[in-house]
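Format is chain and fold; as here:
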Amino acid sequence: MKLQVAKILLATVVMSLMLNTSVQAANLQGLMCYGGPTNDQGFNQMAYDGMNRAINSFAPKLNMAVFINKKADKLRVEDISKLDNKNDFIIGLGDVYLPIFAKLAASRPKTKFIVIDGDKNLGMPNLLCVKFNDLEAGFLAGVAAGGTTNTKNIGFIGGYKNLRSNKELLSGYKAGACYVDPSIKVKSDFVESFTDPKKLEEKALQMYDKRVDVIFHAAGMSGKGLFIAAAKVKKLAIGCDTNQRATAPEEARPYILTSALKHVDNTVYSIIDDIINEKFKPGLRVEDCSTDGIGYADNSVNNKALAKAEPLLLDANAQLTLKAIKILIVK
């Protein structure tokens, strides 16, 4: 009897050790590389939320570390390559990571690399680029601005003039405004920073002073300055990436018309889900209106101005979903 009990206990211990080894073997180490602070109330914040949702869902299989890039568009390969090379996957936010990850992916074939906002398929088996259709996001913002402007003068303030996503957002914005009324004029400017709200506030006030009555920003944390300016002059503003009315100062919220949405949180979560479940697919993945990766914040309940443009927005969103509108990049 004692011998039988001993055998059962031994079998239990062996099984326990096998299970523990299995769990440890299943653990994945990921690294998320941010272009600036995680709490920017926009693109980075949504990615951070998606990452944390994945951590909570897949614990204890998933471990995540964070790297904050403070060099904006001046990041080098060495800045990433000197980090721990034991990561199973690395996610970079922004197309600045594409040339860096392309070089690292060749030398680290067992590591999966993901560029959020990358726009190329380099044909590498361990590199995925996710492109959000910024033309569509800008187009919806342009329809919202075009449908509400009283002066037929609207504005755009971006983070960096040479940034691909900013170029496409501006092109889409112009196209969306033209879709509503070809006579609408679009003024544009750039802060050359994602972390300078004061500078953007000054530029926004200058635009508002020139008969512009709606401004769309695509400048990360700098965009806070737009909402401060809009509240001061009681004119309209459009946010970017997430519904920024929810995080703006109370006094600015009545003037935030809508926000052009990129569902970065859902995308980050689904990519990590694919990696966990061994369904990772390299190449190029496009998120747009048809995949529900792009949209706009419906603030019509608390913003009467948006209600005026709502029919136009609904129509534009439907047309984009059906691929019935072709948006061209305007130089």
Notes: The CA atoms of residues 202 and 229 lie 8 Å apart. The chain has two domains: 9-133+264-291, 134-261+293-321.
